[in-house]
């Protein structure tokens, strides 16, 4: 980190926790647990606007007064030095649109740094190229792949061609299908890919039926209706097929008996009474 970008790191979350503990102690019995759950986020935001004598400004202003480069390097420093990253820093990075400075963090090989960058960048199209490379890489952890996949699913149309290319190459096909199913533009190639995968993997009906439901092309209805008529599908598969049919504007009303299905039993078995004779509030 260059000296000009080096800023003092503060554990604002630790400061807040110390103040919160004192507030809770001083107000014992005044609020229920649920009321505290509602109050704490409001108190945190109020803390962000409080001038702290130790730094001469508020936590929010401390970050807002930094340059874009300082903000990005401060995030890196927090993680490298093990100082908790406050929401105020992440908010400042979002407000100042520091995407270009955060992009290198995505493929830095540092999982936690990449996770924070994804959380701040979100579904910004400028990150899509890096996101797809992350999904395609065997070195990326599944949790991170899931996160960037969710970001692209919010607006998959800009990378439709890239998704198809990765799919045809055989690269992380399930991720590519999941993202392709969120493409809003009607496209015969995308539809056929999702349908073919459904028909070729009837042993994985729930997942692939969900892709057809998400894509929203009612041409898939006859295929879904054909599969839901099968006698060998289980209760979970039936439910996913029925949902997909209804999502595409269709209807399936034929009575089916799944009472002997173990999946049906799991879903409909009431929870055990673990409280015994304890009084319920």
Structural summary, described in words:
The chain has 16 helices and no strands. Helix 4 runs antiparallel to helix 5. The longest helix has 16 residues. The mean pLDDT is 93.
Let me know the average pLDDT: 93
Radius of gyration: 25 Å
Number of strands: 0
Classify the secondary structure makeup into a structural class: mainly alpha
The separation of the N and C termini measures: 56 Å
Poorly predicted sequence stretches spanning 5 or more consecutive residues: none
Q: Number of helical segments?
A: 16
User: What is the molecular shape?
Assistant: globular
Share in helix: 55-70%
Our estimate of the beta-strand percent is under 5%
* Secondary-structure element series: HHHHHHHHHHHHHHHH
Q: Report the biggest beta sheet as strand number plus sense, adding barrel if it closes.
A: none
List the helices and strands and how they pair.
Layout: H1 12-26, H2 33-48, H3 59-64, H4 68-80, H5 87-95, H6 99-106, H7 111-121, H8 128-136, H9 142-153, H10 160-169, H11 173-180, H12 188-200, H13 205-215, H14 221-228, H15 235-247, H16 262-268
Task: Describe the structure concisely for a colleague.
With 281 residues, this protein is mainly alpha-helical. It has helices at 12-26, 33-48, 59-64, 68-80, 87-95, 99-106, 111-121, 128-136, 142-153, 160-169, 173-180, 188-200, 205-215, 221-228, 235-247, 262-268. It contains 16 helices and no strands.
